[in-house]
């Protein structure tokens, strides 16, 4: 009856901009969207166009948690078929600052002339809510802290039946924040980490709000995470480049996310 599994499916892990073509066939071109199944609960971390690969029927109301509102993280909202299915409820949690309205924030993009209709006009039962922590989704405990990224971005930690997953995408490593972030990610079974840049590219792009796999490994070692999944691949990083980076790192506990990959905790 109960499915006890805590599992992650990568629906999209491209950063900044969707890409397509044969050179992206292995790691994929869809932007950030991660599908978490925890027993009967279904939680999506971010809603890039990877959301279009998500199923639309669930035993319980699914929940979408947005880390922040950069376009690559909300690109899939406009075309997710569930939002147009009458009677199907979805909870969409949006990070807001004081005085901001969650729905109005999304209307900046999803309204004429940028898009033909507002998300409020979709015929499904979409509930847009402000994101705050701690948040409970059935048995899943979700906590969050602000990470170092232009305009802000929520780092999120999901706990379910003794297992822990941490989502740290759109994050630039920061010496001052390192101890707090290591505390937050302490003992994670799986750490998703923004490794958009090589150390060489990072030297040119400091302050852009993204990190490196090497900085992810440093955090992993500090916080004792069991497995590191590198996400938010640069649009310029073809399969050849990502494979080369992965084999250069050459650790069993470090993987570069591939669209469609499933990790069971
Ligand atoms: Zn992003
Ligand atoms: Zn971002």
Q: Please, could you describe this protein's structure?
A:
The structure is a single chain. Helices cover 15% and strands 28% of the residues. The protein has 265 residues and is an alpha/beta fold. It has one domain: 4-Layer Sandwich (Metallo-beta-lactamase, Chain A), CATH 3.60.15. It has a 7-stranded mixed β-sheet with strand order 6-5-4-3-2-1-14. A 7-stranded mixed β-sheet has the order 7-8-9-10-11-12-13, covered by helices on one side. A hairpin with a 2-residue loop joins strand 9 (153-160) and strand 10 (163-168). Helix 2 (178-184) packs across helix 4 (213-223). It is globular and about 50 Å long. The mean pLDDT is 97. The structure holds zinc ion (2 copies).
Topology:
Elements: E1 6-12, E2 33-38, E3 41-45, E4 63-65, E5 89-95, H1 102-107, E6 125-131, E7 135-137, E8 140-147, E9 153-160, E10 163-168, H2 178-184, E11 190-194, H3 199-204, H4 213-223, E12 228-231, H5 239-249, E13 254-256, E14 262-264
Parallel strand pairs: 3-4, 4-5, 5-6, 10-11, 11-12, 12-13
Antiparallel strand pairs: 1-2, 1-14, 2-3, 7-8, 8-9, 9-10
Helix pairs in contact: 2-4
The structure holds zinc ion (2 copies).
Residues 68, 70, 149, 153, 170, 209 line the site of one zinc ion.
Give a quick set of tags describing it:
seven-stranded mixed sheet; binds zinc ion; Metallo-beta-lactamase, Chain A; alpha/beta; 265 residues; 14 strands
